[in-house]
Structure formats: structure tokens, C-alpha cells
Amino acid sequence: MDTITAGIQVLPNGKDMDTDGVIPKIIEVIKKSGLRYDIGPMETVIEGSFDEVMLIIKATQATATDMGATEVLTNVKLHYKPDGVSINNKLTHV
Questions:
Q1: Is 27 within 8 Å of 44 (Cβ atoms)?
Q2: pTM as predicted
């Protein structure tokens, strides 16, 4: 499968949990992935193969639960085109 883009918003939750410490760790996971990404105020957009992107989503959820979240809600938007789509493609009309 060609390159896709995914907008993800990871929402860790847990009793008496300070999510301010979790979000930077989640961003670290994304940065260390080696995939292209763009951090926005409401979501982060990741670019890669379908499998690579799914692995990162899984890793972000695991990071949150490893840090004490009892649940993680993740909103995901995927953009797929047969010939591939990149973050740059999405910005050409802005």
C-alpha cells in the first residue's frame, strides 16, 4: 500500500491522572518513529505506510497506559489514495 496520512488525537484518561505529562511522551514516540509528522493544536498528522501508521497509533496507546491511563480514546482520520498521499500534497491548496 502506498503512503497514507493519518490525523490522530490521543486522549489518555485515568482517575487523578495528570495528562500533561503523558502527551509529551506520546509526541516522543511519534518523533522517534522516523515517520514524517506535523503537530497541530488538536491533532498530529503522521505520514507513512498503513502498517507503519497503525504501529505508531498502537505505540501511543501503550505509552499512555504504561504511564497510568486506565483508558485511551484515540480519534483517527485516514486519508488514502491509490497513488499515495503526503502531508505536502494536502498543503498545496492552502
A1: yes
A2: 0.86
